[in-house]
Design brief:
The protein has about 425 residues and is α/β, with parallel strands linked by helices. Helix content is about 45%, strand content about 20%.
């Protein structure tokens, strides 16, 4: 398939956006804007939560923020509940295709808009297996395993009903596609996300980086980049660091913000650990990654792992966990994966890599990413394969609907419908 030839209006609709400290969705939105505006004739409408209602039109790009309250415990994120505003925006601009990138509330806003405007094609990005990663985990922590399993069943049912309404669904890994098929959602594509391999490159290594952070250790510099919260299991990274041999003389830098950051900073006081915060400057992040030696992550529910491929593009071996999409990202020879929450095994893997095949793994990690995970490839597949399939399904649905309407009209006397009081 090829990209839709006629210019169209594409809409991104998501709750999962934060201007500061945001993760993969924010990066995806920025890279998509760059690609659509510079490489295609299409227009792009992006609807996200913000502190107040505002619309900014800049040529073929339309940026809409819907005023929303902050998410409790996650100061960088907001949650849209005022769906009427979203409906009004969609009705005003009438996008040809809506891509929904989060599971809560807004997918049904898109579905209901499509019911009013049947020509609209719907695509969903299934970025997180929320029945397991969110509902079951949080429910079990708060109410126990029995209740957690029950809540997961409800969330699974919600996922089945919701994602069958979309014309096409994409996931970020083959593993996640299998999960969706288990939810009886079969119209699924796998879409790999990307990395700017020119920006994230080993040549950006800077020996002055660790000194700027006040780190004096002369051994390996470990790095983690992402939200510092429970979902990412960021506390396990610090636990692992404490278990490293003293003579390794290691240091750790944890890049990002999150609700665990202050507590972990207090816990790490006096250790060779730095918390520089969220790095909005992508060049600064690229320099930070390239200046480290090993990337570490304890995340168990990774659905793609943009931070992983950015680290690999920067020439870093990865120590992570053998679960989720990390098993697809960290192929043999590019790092070591251990059991979830086994911080002792993580520490052992760090020491073994540092004392052994680090240079070979670093080169293999870079080779694994370069040419395979590029943003251009991501959006060429999205616009060249996923979107055309969704548009074809929408056309077929409308043709079937018109055919069905014709049959229904034949049941009425000539003269058409009789209007009934509303």
């Amino acid at each position: 398939m090829t990209k839709p030839a006629a210019p169209m209006l594409i809409c991104d609709l998501t709750q999962s956006y934060a201007p500061h400290g945001g993760g993969g969705i924010g990066r995806y939105l920025r890279e998509k804007r760059r690609y659509v505006i510079h490489e295609t004739p299409h227009r792009l409408l992006q609807i996200v939560p913000g502190p107040e209602d505002r619309i900014v039109e800049d040529g073929r790009h339309i940026w809409v923020e819907v005023g929303a309250e902050q998410v409790r415990g996650s100061p960088n994120y907001r949650f849209i509940m005022r769906t009427r505003i979203v409906r009004d925006v969609l009705k005003r601009f009438l996008p040809d295709l809506i891509e929904s990138q989060c599971p809560w509330v807004l997918p049904w806003t898109a579905i209901n808009h499509r019911r009013a405007f049947p020509h609209t094609a719907l695509v969903a990005g299934y970025h997180t297996d929320f029945p397991n990663a969110h509902v079951h985990r949080v429910g079990s922590e708060l109410f126990g395993e029995f209740v957690g399993r029950g809540l997961r069943r409800l969330a699974t049912g919600y996922a089945e009903v919701t994602y069958r309404e979309f014309d096409r669904v994409y996931t970020l890994s083959a593993m996640m596609a299998d999960v969706l098929r288990g939810y009886r959602v079969d119209h699924v594509d796998v879409l790999a996300l990307g990395v700017d391999t020119a920006l994230f490159h080993p040549e950006r290594r800077d020996a002055a980086f660790r000194q700027e952070l006040g780190l004096t250790a002369r051994g390996p510099l470990l790095v983690y980049a992402g939200r510092i919260d429970n979902e990412k299991r960021a506390d396990r990274v610090l636990t692992m660091f404490r278990q490293l041999p003293r003579d390794l003389d290691a240091a750790l830098v944890m890049i990002g913000d999150g609700k665990l950051r202050d507590a972990l900073m207090a816990e790490a006081k006096g250790l060779q650990v730095a918390f520089p915060g969220f790095m909005a400057d992508r060049q600064e992040l690229a320099r930070a990654l390239a200046s480290a030696d090993i990337y570490v992550s304890a995340m168990a529910d990774e659905t793609f792992g943009i931070s992983i491929v950015e680290a690999q593009a920067s020439g870093l071996p990865v120590v992570g966990v053998a679960l989720g999409a990390m098993r697809e990202r960290v192929v043999p020879g590019t790092g070591v994966l251990v059991e979830v929450d086994d911080t002792v095994a993580m520490a052992t893997a760090v020491a073994q890599i540092w004392q052994g095949p680090r240079a070979t793994m670093a080169e293999a990690a870079r080779d694994h990413v370069a040419g395979r995970f590029e943003w251009r490839q991501t959006f060429e597949r999205l616009l060249g394969e996923v979107y055309p399939r969704a548009l074809a399904t929408a056309r077929a649905r409308n043709e079937k609907g018109r055919s069905g309407m014709g049959a229904a009209l034949s049941l009425f006397p000539r003269g058409g419908f009789r209007q009934v009081g509303r």
